[in-house]
Write a structure and sequence with these properties.
Order of helices and strands: EHEHEHEHEEEEHEHEHEHEHEHHH
Shape: globular
Radius of gyration: 20 Å
Distance between the termini: 11 Å
Oligomer: single chain
Largest sheet: 7 strands, parallel
Number of strands: 13
Length: about 350
């Protein structure tokens, strides 16, 4: 059995859980069993709805869960490997889980020198020097966008296709929006100036009801603005989207796989390095960090980049200089590694 140690809730979102689900689903197709081990503060019902067995930790140490408890629970199972996907980790967690089974860590933050048997980092900025390979000569590294774990039901019909025009714009923050970013982005762009373009706002799973009501009151009178509830068929949504405005997250990699041009921003530390790397390479322009950058300057940059993105040649430049194109097979590759 493969154990996925990951969490998801209204504070950290569901990204860790969903990328682990993609891998577990590939393992299931190959006849292998998987189980999710989640912290006490995880949204248990949402994880359970994915269709895999779920175990819940009860103890909460200083970083939100106890690896000692996790190791004790897993010692009762025949564990092939533990796949750890969490930022809430300390060095002791790695040694405790490695004592149970081979440990694979899915990373995109590099908080310290992880003592794992293998590290998976699908981000564009990841390279071997990043992980000081001489410190752990036996540790295996699986780096780069070819390991981006995309769900099989999400695979595009026409991967990498560049749209000829912009008729549909998707605005998303993921499952949470602590900085009320979606509202700011709509106000900065002003959809009324673009009556021939439809703007869809994906309302996150953990958006507050009051925030959604405010949104609807503010923008519903505009015929070209629609609000999309969480749980959409994302493949269909991507295939009807020409431009996406999103944080540096897995959604950007999904969009690039579909050939969608993107504009990025960040509001969390784990998003920043991806945004900066993609911006530096000319792949996805970055408007700034909602936590610390001046909103007036971010608004100016967004309006300029949005106007530029309406031009096919400009969007074509982003695709031309793109050094990679995720092919949607990362989860399959990771599953093969685990096997």
């Amino acid at each position: 059995m493969f154990i996925f140690r990951a969490d998801g809730n209204s504070t950290i979102g569901m990204g860790h859980i969903m990328r682990c689900f993609s891998i577990a689903d590939c393992l299931r197709e190959k006849g292998k069993k998987s189980c999710f081990l989640v912290s006490k503060d995880s949204d248990f019902s949402r994880v359970q709805a994915l269709g895999f067995p779920v175990l819940r930790l009860q103890r909460e140490d200083s970083h939100g869960w106890s690896s000692e408890e996790a190791a004790y629970i897993l010692s009762a199972y025949d564990v092939d490997a533990v796949i750890l996907d969490s930022y809430r980790v300390v060095p002791e967690d790695f040694s405790r889980l490695k004592a149970v089974a081979p440990l694979y860590y899915i990373d995109d933050l590099w908080a310290f020198d992880y003592d794992a048997d293998a590290i998976i980092n699908y981000n564009i900025e990841a390279d071997e020097d990043f992980y000081f390979p001489t410190e752990h000569p036996g540790r295996k590294l699986y780096l780069g966008p070819s390991y981006f774990p995309m769900r099989k039901e999400m695979l595009p019909s026409h991967p990498g296709r560049l749209r000829s025009g912009v008729k549909s714009v998707l605005i998303t923050t993921g499952s949470t929006d602590p900085c009320q970013i979606s509202r700011n982005i709509l106000q900065w762009i002003d959809p009324a100036e673009y009556p021939d373009i439809s703007f869809g706002v994906l309302l996150g799973a953990f958006y507050e009801t009051e925030y959604i009501s405010e949104f609807e009151t503010l923008f519903s009178p505009q015929n070209n603005v629609s609000f999309l509830t969480w749980g959409q068929n994302m493949k269909h949504l991507y295939e009807s989207t020409d431009l996406m405005i999103a944080p540096g997250s897995t959604m950007v990699y999904e969009a690039l796989t579909f050939g969608i041009s993107c504009i990025s921003y960040c509001f969390a530390e784990n998003q920043l390095s991806q945004c900066l790397a993609m911006d530096a390479k000319g792949t996805v322009p970055f408007i700034g960090d909602f936590r610390q950058d001046k909103h007036s300057l971010m608004a100016q940059k967004l309006r300029r980049l949005f106007r530029e993105s309406l031009s096919l040649p400009q969007r074509g430049v982003h695709r031309t200089v793109n050094p990679f194109c995720p092919d949607g097979k990362g989860a399959v590759r990771i599953a093969e590694i685990l096997l």
